[in-house]
Amino acid sequence: MKTILGIESSCDETAAAVVSRGTEILSSVVASQIKVHAPFGGVVPELASRKHLESIAPVVEQALEEAGITAGQVDGVAVTRGPGLVGALLVGFSFAKAYALALDVPWVGVNHLLGHIHSVLMSPSPPEFPFAALLVSGGHTSIYKVSSRTDMEVMGQTRDDAAGEAFDKVSKAMGLGYPGGEIISKLADSGDPHKISFPRSWLDKKKFDFSFSGIKTAVGRYMQVHEETWQDEKADIAASFQEAVVEVLATKLINAAKSIGCPRVAVAGGVAANACLRDRVTQLAAKAGMSVHLPDISLCGDNAAMIAAAGYYKLAAGECSPLNMDVFSRVEK
Ligand code: KG4
Ligand code: ZN
């Protein structure tokens, strides 16, 4: 069991990758649907499913070609099982089952969120176990205690919006487009992060849950109150919003690592590409004497290499999914 084909279709990216021995990425192809969904200001589930159907076979073919292997050289298939959009997940999931059956190789369903954490473990110098990992994406914001490649325990999570969702919603409210993370962070580069004091939602400071719906509302209120002038302050609004979100994320991650007595932190997920978050976690970790582990930018957003890596360790441990396994939208059963 050496060469794994990974498949990912949980949201708006159709991805396939070939990974050797859980760490060596031979290819990673991501077909983004951003252009399809951008006119609607967010992902339209039915359009996503249809687009995945169109892209899945060519994306898998391209991944094999770029890896320089034939289908016959695939030893196992790993595919995202959830969480995500059910119609979108079913495309990749059904394709993976059929592909594995045709090749007569084992296959395994992978939790997308744990897949994101594997993006940190694929680096040339991965953290030792255990470590505290902040997972920040468009649909999730959680802190995990990662004890091994297969043992990851949730220490806290968002009670409402995810951090990436807050970036997307603020961008939409300001009429800046979708997805908002990259747009807001670029705009923030020319703004003053201390100009507007948006609320920091700490909840219980000793715990690791998050809440980001309040800050989204606060930005909307600021725009209403400054109806005539906010258009001239877009960069300051973006920078001040980003500062408030990043401060809470980075501080809670460091506190979580302290609470489990381990001097190692990691960040994963789409929002891990945010330069301000990467810098702040690095600064706070240095102050606390902790090592920081950040994935390569190409592995922050949704990709199939992380799914192949997570699947490799499951298959290597003897796990193999049955053909009647279903996907899940929110909670793994
Ligand atoms: O992990 P991901 O690709 O998909 C999900 O599993 O959700 O994360 C996508 C999220 C989006 O909300 C996007 O706006 C956000 O990641 N994002 C960023 C940045 N790049 C992507 N947020 C802040 N700063 C960025 N540079
Ligand atoms: Zn994701």
From TrEMBL:
<dbReference type="GO" id="GO:0005506">
    <property type="term" value="F:iron ion binding"/>
</dbReference>
<comment type="similarity">
    <text>Belongs to the KAE1 / TsaD family.</text>
</comment>
<dbReference type="InterPro" id="IPR017861">
    <property type="entry name" value="KAE1/TsaD"/>
</dbReference>
<dbReference type="InterPro" id="IPR022450">
    <property type="entry name" value="TsaD"/>
</dbReference>
<keyword id="KW-0479">Metal-binding</keyword>
<dbReference type="GO" id="GO:0002949">
    <property type="term" value="P:tRNA threonylcarbamoyladenosine modification"/>
</dbReference>
<feature type="binding site">
    <location>
        <begin position="135"/>
        <end position="139"/>
    </location>
    <ligand>
        <name>substrate</name>
    </ligand>
</feature>
<keyword id="KW-0408">Iron</keyword>
<keyword id="KW-0378">Hydrolase</keyword>
<keyword id="KW-0963">Cytoplasm</keyword>
<feature type="binding site">
    <location>
        <position position="274"/>
    </location>
    <ligand>
        <name>substrate</name>
    </ligand>
</feature>
<dbReference type="GO" id="GO:0061711">
    <property type="term" value="F:tRNA N(6)-L-threonylcarbamoyladenine synthase activity"/>
</dbReference>
<dbReference type="InterPro" id="IPR000905">
    <property type="entry name" value="Gcp-like_dom"/>
</dbReference>
<feature type="binding site">
    <location>
        <position position="112"/>
    </location>
    <ligand>
        <name>Fe cation</name>
    </ligand>
</feature>
<keyword id="KW-0819">tRNA processing</keyword>
<protein>
    <recommendedName>
        <fullName>tRNA N6-adenosine threonylcarbamoyltransferase</fullName>
        <ecNumber>2.3.1.234</ecNumber>
    </recommendedName>
</protein>
<feature type="binding site">
    <location>
        <position position="168"/>
    </location>
    <ligand>
        <name>substrate</name>
    </ligand>
</feature>
<dbReference type="GO" id="GO:0016787">
    <property type="term" value="F:hydrolase activity"/>
</dbReference>
<comment type="function">
    <text>Required for the formation of a threonylcarbamoyl group on adenosine at position 37 (t(6)A37) in tRNAs that read codons beginning with adenine. Is involved in the transfer of the threonylcarbamoyl moiety of threonylcarbamoyl-AMP (TC-AMP) to the N6 group of A37, together with TsaE and TsaB. TsaD likely plays a direct catalytic role in this reaction.</text>
</comment>
<feature type="binding site">
    <location>
        <position position="181"/>
    </location>
    <ligand>
        <name>substrate</name>
    </ligand>
</feature>
<dbReference type="InterPro" id="IPR043129">
    <property type="entry name" value="ATPase_NBD"/>
</dbReference>
<keyword id="KW-0808">Transferase</keyword>
<feature type="binding site">
    <location>
        <position position="302"/>
    </location>
    <ligand>
        <name>Fe cation</name>
    </ligand>
</feature>
<dbReference type="InterPro" id="IPR017860">
    <property type="entry name" value="Peptidase_M22_CS"/>
</dbReference>
<dbReference type="GO" id="GO:0005737">
    <property type="term" value="C:cytoplasm"/>
</dbReference>
<dbReference type="Pfam" id="PF00814">
    <property type="entry name" value="TsaD"/>
</dbReference>
<keyword id="KW-0012">Acyltransferase</keyword>
<feature type="binding site">
    <location>
        <position position="116"/>
    </location>
    <ligand>
        <name>Fe cation</name>
    </ligand>
</feature>
<feature type="domain" description="Gcp-like">
    <location>
        <begin position="24"/>
        <end position="308"/>
    </location>
</feature>
